[in-house]
Design goal:
Oligomer: homotetramer
Number of helices of chain A: 15
Order of helices and strands of chain A: HHEEEHEHEEHEEHEEHEHEHEHHHHHH
CATH architecture of chain A: Alpha-Beta Barrel
Shape of chain A: globular
Number of strands of chain A: 13
Largest sheet of chain A: 6 strands, parallel
Number of domains of chain A: 1
Strand order of the largest sheet of chain A: 6-7-9-11-12-13
Structural class of chain A: alpha/beta
CATH topology of chain A: TIM Barrel
């Protein structure tokens, strides 16, 4: 299923005048709108292949309908999304769920949809059918060398598959840790993990990066071997220049100041990428911006400031990805809401009056500094986001168009009602 | 598989002298040991039928081996546990996972093992195959009357099955809630839930109780309709004298003072029962006493004090149950560790010098009050727990005996390696 | 020091055209702007007398300058604030810090500034010089009757003073609790507190309310006797129809869903009032809306919905107050930022499309429900707030005017640099 | 006031037989008691000079009586404590609260009591009377060079005073941070702090260490510039071999796994010292072991294992100190309870069967690993602690002796009732 140009046009035509009216209002009161729009157009957020079906919890999973049945259909879904919002031009695969026999076919398919392959994701937190060694007690940290070897080889295989697809990064999220005091010698677990990571690192192609993702807890409930940014940074530093820390917004202890972490990782030149989602309690994996939109803005505020200070390219020097679990919403609709929230936060961060902020900070004018950030956050910049989408060939209101065209109904027609996306 | 008397005897004989030596030491320095032993003997902790196989997380599940394949084998497992520790004389069933065609057979089987049927548990947090209505958006709270009706009827069916087995209580844990702001009108959700509960309440036999379990979050990640003790108490009060609050140790926000909640619920005569487990982050469902044993003791301290103040019977006036998820341990070993930790905490609470404590409280002698509680907690009362077990016909060291006899190996021989317990 | 009309006029004249431009844009796209403006004009937020000087932490306090030296000057400060924003038409006193010899003079002074006296606040969390009994181990909960008596009499004295000033409510925030396990018998502490509250309740004039404020922790670090909304509601119900729960946004455990609590308290007809502030970690007492503005909006969303469902008057049927600690900002500037954030959140909540939301909820259209709330939150309604202020005779941009006129400099000139506000 | 030998002897004589009875029981069942006793005797915990009077919260402070009026009396208090428990042989000073004109006199006084001077503490979180620059917006991080310079010079002055007293370490706890988003550029604040620390580091004598203490929040409520162990480690690594991280148990986000942090810092050879206390909510500064004794044991378990792995000397290679706030208990009694809890946890950690634990870890025998730790924790090792105290010349039951001799009454007689310890 593909979005037809005339469908898009009809939608945009209908909304054009209202949009223009709002856009020119924003332009009247916001400096540098044109620059912001250009940056918004360049900004692409990777979509994880496992977020195209409904996720669940340990208590159960409620299937959606018309979920993609294979990698081809997942690519089709992301292609559809990208056609609608022109900000989802990358897909992130998960091996073995998305293992493919013929990568060049898959690569061609993606190209047709204007998609590239974002960071590859390995999986050593589950046992696959027929797998020789079990990850019950960890993978790269395991006390048994044979388990570590299997996990290392799996990661190298993921790199191999990624190379074939044109990806240039590997994301390693390790569930490794312990559920009970005494289970693990933390130091030894760290050292074994480091040795394993070194072997994977050695297999990285020259231009590849490896992202070390940290997480405070779950599925291990006492300790996690890459448990916070400090641990991830230790690993990244010990590994070398291709290793970076990856920040997932849901992977922190309660009340953590994530924007400060982001700033410091940029300072250390070790921030590698981002997993967007939102949460109230733990790794809730909710729609980005649905719970704490101001935090999302503050994070982007640090990203923009820190990347600009280093002369980094916003669009390409960090890996941007959504990592959410769509338990009760239509996955495509949910992703559209996440992308929208991310783009708004990015636009707001771009609109911050940096010079005034620096001056206020220099003078410890706390009231003024707050006013400057709130001014950016309270201003309704959605017209800029819509304009960027429009100029890039997308829909002014992607979600409305998706619903108006009853695209999910089409997908169900094609794929059936009872499908379950691989990996879910 | 059943534990033979001669196996028990050989084990106890071997350990008897050492045990006696320790017991008499404790008796020398602890007042009222005999009374404590008697109370320990009477105290029985219900075992949930779903805790006999390995549990998992949303990221995966690592199967154990020799897991019970049906309700009969679950009863056999609890029977084995009870033969070992003589403190696990009840099983708590979960419908539909444990639905039985012939309840009288099952009842006889349980009787053979010296087990009674604890509170029945309904399930409206998952969709069962072939189920007409979906619980994706809640059950007793659902906006659609047909869904509510289905959930109400399920609960009434659970009561019916419980009556046939001789159970006398229904535990309702509702996953109902919302994942996103706006999804739910909290007030209306409360009212609909209340109406549904009233219908279930009306179906309770005269001598039955219903336990309203609360939980702060998960599987819903924005709001839960029975989210804390205050909400549960509201429901219990609006329902009537047969309705009570059930406290699960893992169902609170970070840092909650659970012992205070217990005390106040006893004050209001609305504490109904307990789900034991331990946790560091959320509803981690770890072995009781494995993370915060002092908290477990403090809770028992309130239970003993509060029940004694009302002249309640410790063993029978509240429902005591373990509710844990054995993700990486052998379920039977894990349960033995939980029961042991609970019995120790109970013994310590029984040994608190109540009069001295009251006096210290009266005089605001905070240092002394702390000394009194720490004296009880720091004293090694394991010999009293072992003695109670021994006198009741159990093993002095259940876990050692279980391992020495290689009972799991026996179970695997009987049941096979690849079994998965129903409901997991 | 008083704001002159010509100063206000000059300020408003200068900004008028820009404001009009923005206002008409909002009006074009937002239904019922006129009704929203009217409600905003009627809405008044009480200012606590202790928030007019710089607050501190246990580690120290950094004085501001030109702080009010007495109650008269505190009233002057609130008067100035109210002249600027026309939304701060009430002051909330704290006894003994604000005890006055001649209430009618004070009353006249307040009237001159257009201020009324909001809820009175008692203080039994500190020992005052020369006080007979100490509150070291609590006040209304104390084991010693003489201490309770002193605390009860103090509260009754506060009522008496409030009556003389025309206040109609008493807020009781109790620090009572315990720092260590064992220190307190929770049940007895509750009962003693209840008995004490009953005596205070009996002294309430016919039209008065008493607000029972809860708080999870601090200054007691193990238990608090009125620790959460459930406990406060128990007290309020046991006391009678004049007793209500007061919600302070910073008084919860991490991750609490405050908007749900608000909704349920409204359902139970026991929500009495609100203390606004914001926080990241505990009772941080930061500027309202400075950390989690979306949460503030969600709370107002419940307030508007719940009050409308009961036909309550937004402006008068609940007590609205700021309770913050201005540790590093100019107190008046900080209060202006808080009031602005509150008014924006209120305006956004008023603009929610209620009918569409109800429909989405009815149909479990979670995506749509989120869109509706985000539409309200993302729309820039500041022009409506400014218009309401303007029509009521205030400044279009109060903070700018305050700074342009260098009003703090004026206050320092009048009062001196080294002043410390009473109670700080 | 000094403890007389005959008073000690009388106390010990009375308790000797009971003690011997318990000791020999422990010796019968616990291997290597003699080695444990020796290590307990060598272990000394520093007492902070500011913990000898009653502390308070921002809401108030309830004075005790007989508090030390000057440094001499603080030393007297620690001397008394040390005479009682023989484990408090060091005092940690806080400048300017404990600044002395004549260090050699003070040094002699301490020597008379058998005390040495532990790490010195600087204070840049408060403004002292007459101080030129204010720390309202930070000290070492401040945007104004003059403020940084003042703070640097203060730290160097503290080193100078410490040298005169024979101390060999400087502890820097920085309150520096921000209360509101936007207030601070995190990166610049980090860099300025680093530059300032480098100047202080350069002033360290050859054999000195500097401890960089981290804290998650309070008194700043949005960000802290040395906010977690990762940030502290970054600073320590950038400074050089004399710089170390200091862990205070109360300075973490909710649910942090502190024992893992300890283990990793030891791995990195950057753990410098410890501040003991306990807490339920934040930096509650309660008596060590009063809330989570098992956590305290688990931390010591990592300390013993990690230090032994490096061949470190338990008694001298890390800085051990209590840092608590005695808000409602007699400070000396409170300190005795803290020291006792620490010694018990240390003894338990020493008694862990390391070889068996390693084996269980190697085999992923999680149940066994838990049993091994619980065996150590559940065993009542208080007789070993008492024996160590006794052999070192202290009291078998320090708290009882303190109360029996009515030592506080004596101190009040000497010093008066209304004293307030300097710095409180």
């Amino acid at each position: 299923m593909q979005l037809e140009k005339h469908q898009l046009d009809r939608h945009n035509d209908k909304l054009f005048n209202g949009h223009q009216r709002k856009l020119s209002f924003v332009q009247e009161f916001t400096p540098e709108c044109e620059a912001i729009i250009k940056k918004l157009m360049a900004f692409q957020i990777g979509i994880p292949s496992w977020a195209l079906g409904n996720g669940g919890t340990r208590f159960g999973r409620f299937s959606g309908a018309g979920e993609p049945r294979n990698l081809e259909e997942k690519i089709e879904d992301v292609g559809l999304l990208h056609a609608l919002n022109r900000s989802s031009g990358a897909i992130s695969l998960h091996i073995p769920w998305d293992s493919v026999a013929d990568p060049s076919n898959i690569r061609n398919l993606a190209t047709q949809y204007g998609l590239r392959f974002d960071a590859m994701n390995s999986n050593t937190f589950q046992d696959q059918k027929g797998q020789e060694q079990s990850y019950k007690f960890g993978s790269l940290q395991h006390t048994d060398k044979a388990v570590r070897k299997q996990a290392i080889e799996h990661n190298i295989e993921v790199i191999r598959q990624g190379v074939a697809l044109g990806s240039e990064a590997l994301t390693i999220w390790l569930a490794d840790g312990s559920c009970f005091p005494g289970q693990l010698n933390f130091r030894n677990a760290f050292q074994r993990t480091l040795e394993s990571l070194k072997e994977i690192y050695a297999a990285l192609p020259a231009h590849w990066k490896v992202f070390i993702e940290y997480k405070a807890f779950e599925p291990n409930f006492y300790s996690t071997t890459v448990g916070d940014w400090g641990q991830s940074l230790l690993f990244a530093n010990k590994l070398g220049p291709k290793a970076f820390t990856l920040v997932d917004l849901g992977h922190h202890l309660p009340n953590a100041n994530i924007e400060q972490i982001v700033s410091l990782l940029l300072m250390e030149e070790k921030l590698g990428g981002f997993h967007f989602n939102d949460s109230k309690y733990g790794d809730d994996d909710l729609t980005a911006g649905s719970i704490k939109p101001y935090q999302l803005f503050l994070i982007f505020n640090e990203l923009v400031e820190g990347m600009d200070a280093r002369g980094m390219d916003h669009a390409s020097d960090l890996g941007w990805m959504i990592d959410a679990s769509h338990n009760i919403k239509d996955p495509l609709e949910d992703l559209m809401q996440s992308v929208e929230a991310i783009m708004i936060a990015y636009a707001q961060a771009l609109s911050v009056d940096r010079k005034a902020l620096q001056l206020a900070q220099q003078e410890n004018d706390v009231v003024r500094a707050q006013e400057i950030l709130q001014q950016a956050f309270r201003t309704d910049l959605r017209p800029l986001v819509a304009e960027a989408r429009f100029r890039a060939g997308g829909a002014l209101e992607p979600l409305s168009l998706f619903r108006d065209l009853e695209l999910r109904k089409e997908l169900i027609k094609e794929r059936g009602r009872e499908t379950v996306s691989t990996g879910l």
